């Protein structure tokens, strides 16, 4: 494709994504579906540029105030992640001079909000939570691309065996630092045609998500509920930990998301999983299981702000009002899910949010209203399931994962045991 045609296409995609009226990944996929003639490399360039723009949107929008021509084209030039000489071949003489001027601006001369690229309502609680010194590494880590992590399905093979299969396929990987089930893959190789993947030997799952399932630690023969199962990332990990025995209910209000679990279940070889759509958290199905369940995982709907490395649009699409609405949902779901836990059973509340409002606050409110649930020190619980150096991952007995400290998405989880 001619350089200017690709740059114009990039500007068009940026114009669509920058409206922020839909998740960026959905807009990008729809754009590519309508342009089937685009090659792999061109798609890669457009997607990388759009994500680069979303990560540093405040800075790029500020810089794009100078220059001439349509703003989406200026943004595409500034955020360009394709070949540099290819871009230059698309630029007018005026654009080349402008780009050089903008690139000469020293990043550290910019005001703070153009350096951290977070909305104020999010920057402030994070700065308060981790302190000024740690805030900057956190903001930088949130703007990095996430690595590709896999969870090995130990029903099918051992982690070393999966690693050897990847190596034989020419894919470099290494064991994840904390999860005993994880592999971190170098680069972004296509995995979906590998027999290791199609045969259910591995699933794509961030190391942090693996740790949440490990914290629930379900055992053979138990009755377990994954209350907010979605497309079942954690369900699959729980089913394998149960060695395909017992009963694992995968609940969700979204039938569409549960549908996405089905092909994954088929690959996994699990037959102990019972997916069920519920109308809401007080559904009769939930009530019927009151006091009967050994372990319940609440992977609550949340702002998703711990996953900004993958979903940078969320920082621009979420609002403080949305977080308040989510808190109400989180309280209601946790209270309902807790009723299912039997005496001596375990309850885990988890989010992929960085905000105390969705994490510690929800957990401590629950504890004050339910003294029969006692917090289990997460480092001890994780240590028992072979998580390395679990003490590095916990704060006040809860699992608290930070992208800048641990190299994973941001996660929070508390485990409680119900008094016998
Ligand atoms: C964080 S996502 C779950 C991700 C999933 N556990 C995984 O590992 O792939 C939260 C899920 O909660 C579901 N949800 C929202 N409200 C719910 C409710 N009242 N009861 C049960 N699930 C709910 C959403 O549909 C969404 O799939």
TrEMBL record:
S-adenosyl-L-methionine binds at residues 252, 299. Keywords: Methyltransferase, RNA-binding, S-adenosyl-L-methionine, Transferase. InterPro entries: MeTrfase_RsmB-F_NOP2_cat, MeTrfase_RsmB-F_NOP2_dom, RCMT, RsmB-like_ferredoxin, SAM-dependent_MTases_sf. Residues 138-419 form the SAM-dependent MTase RsmB/NOP-type domain. It comes from the Bacteria. Its EC number is 2.1.1.-. It is an enzyme of class 2 (transferase). It holds the Pfam family RsmF-B_ferredox. The keyword Cytoplasm does not apply. One of its GO terms (molecular function) is methyltransferase activity. The active site is at residue 352. GO terms for biological process: methylation. PANTHER family: NOP2 YEAST -RELATED NOL1/NOP2/FMU SUN DOMAIN-CONTAINING (PTHR22807), RIBOSOMAL RNA SMALL SUBUNIT METHYLTRANSFERASE B-RELATED (PTHR22807:SF53). Belongs to the class I-like SAM-binding methyltransferase superfamily. RsmB/NOP family. This is RsmB/NOP family class I SAM-dependent RNA methyltransferase. It comes from Pelomonas baiyunensis.
């Amino acid at each position: 494709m001619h350089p200017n045609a690709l740059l114009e296409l990039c500007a068009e995609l940026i114009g669509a994504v920058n409206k922020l009226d839909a998740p960026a990944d959905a807009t990008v996929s729809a754009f590519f579906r309508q342009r089937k003639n685009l090659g792999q490399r061109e798609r890669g360039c457009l997607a990388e540029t759009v994500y680069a723009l979303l990560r540093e949107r405040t800075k790029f929008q500020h810089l794009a105030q100078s220059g001439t021509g349509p703003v989406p084209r200026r943004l595409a030039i500034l955020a360009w992640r394709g070949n540099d000489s290819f871009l230059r071949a698309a630029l007018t003489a005026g654009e080349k001079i402008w780009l050089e001027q903008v690139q000469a601006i020293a990043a550290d001369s910019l005001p703070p909000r153009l350096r951290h690229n977070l909305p104020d309502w999010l920057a402030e609680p994070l700065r308060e939570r981790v302190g000024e010194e740690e805030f900057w590494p956190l903001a930088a880590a949130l703007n990095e691309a996430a690595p590709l992590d896999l969870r090995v399905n130990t029903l099918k093979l051992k982690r070393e065996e999966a690693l050897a299969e990847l190596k034989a396929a020419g894919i470099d990987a290494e064991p994840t630092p904390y999860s005993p089930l994880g592999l971190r893959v170098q680069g972004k190789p296509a995995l979906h045609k590998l027999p290791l993947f199609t045969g259910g030997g591995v699933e794509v799952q961030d190391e942090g998500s693996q740790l949440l399932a490990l914290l629930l630690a379900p055992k053979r023969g138990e009755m377990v509920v994954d209350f907010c199962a979605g497309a079942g990332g954690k369900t699959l990990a729980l089913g394998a930990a149960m060695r395909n025995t017992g009963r694992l209910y995968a609940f969700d209000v979204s039938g569409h998301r549960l549908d996405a679990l089905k092909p994954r279940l088929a690959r996994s070889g699990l037959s102990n999983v019972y997916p069920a759509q519920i109308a809401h958290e007080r559904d009769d199905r939930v009530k019927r299981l009151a006091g009967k369940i050994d372990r319940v995982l609440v992977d609550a709907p949340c702002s998703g702000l711990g996953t900004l490395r993958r979903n940078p649009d969320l920082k621009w699409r979420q609002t403080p009002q949305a977080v308040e609405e989510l808190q109400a949902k989180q309280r209601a779901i946790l209270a309902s899910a807790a009723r299912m836990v039997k005496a001596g059973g375990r309850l885990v509340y988890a989010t992929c949010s960085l905000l105390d409002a969705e994490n510690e606050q929800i957990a401590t409110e629950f504890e004050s209203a339910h003294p029969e649930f006692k917090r289990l020190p997460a480092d001890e619980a994780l240590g028992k399931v072979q998580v390395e150096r679990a003490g590095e991952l916990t704060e006040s007995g809860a699992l608290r994962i930070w992208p800048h400290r641990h190299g994973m998405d941001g996660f929070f989880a508390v485990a409680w045991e119900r008094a016998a």
